[in-house]
Specification:
The chain is mainly beta. It is about 10% helix and about 60% strand.
Length: about 150
């Protein structure tokens, strides 16, 4: 390499470094949202054999707390607020309570991995003084980031 080529190469490196922010993201470039949990999520689960339910959730992170609302059902639309939502690194958990064929409590726990939440829904249904428990796999997909 000729001396002038080295000077030009050094200048180009300095020029590139001047326009690149720490972390390798160029100034003015679109940046991924800082929190991949915020926004709209969808997931499906087998409620009973042959009945697959689609759930839509709008989740919001506030520090280590998770809030939001879930909705599901086609004929009879249901909604529930996120209760006791927690975030610990990639792990998230929350509870919803609603009235169905009894008093229903769903405890969601999972881990955020590549824009998906994989985990378990622990459902308790209490009616006539009896409680039944069921576990369902939970695989949530991030549909839209928060506005």
């Amino acid at each position: 390499m000729l001396r002038s080529d080295r000077s030009l190469a050094g200048f180009v490196v300095l020029l590139v470094m001047a326009f690149v922010a720490p972390g390798g993201v160029s100034r003015g470039a679109a940046v991924e949202p800082a929190d991949p949990i915020d926004g709209r999520w969808n997931w499906w689960f087998d409620y009973t054999p042959g009945l697959i339910v689609q759930v839509e959730a709008n989740l919001v992170r506030k520090g280590n707390t998770l809030t939001g609302k879930l909705s599901w059902g086609s004929e009879k639309k249901r909604e529930a607020e996120v209760l006791d939502g927690k975030i610990d690194g990639r792990k998230i958990s929350f509870t919803i309570k609603w009235k169905g064929i009894g008093d229903v409590t769903d405890i969601y726990s999972g881990e955020l991995v590549n824009g998906e939440i994989k985990g378990t829904i622990q459902r308790s249904i209490t009616r006539s003084g009896q409680t039944q428990r069921h576990d369902f796999p939970w695989d949530g997909v991030h549909i839209k980031a928060a506005d």
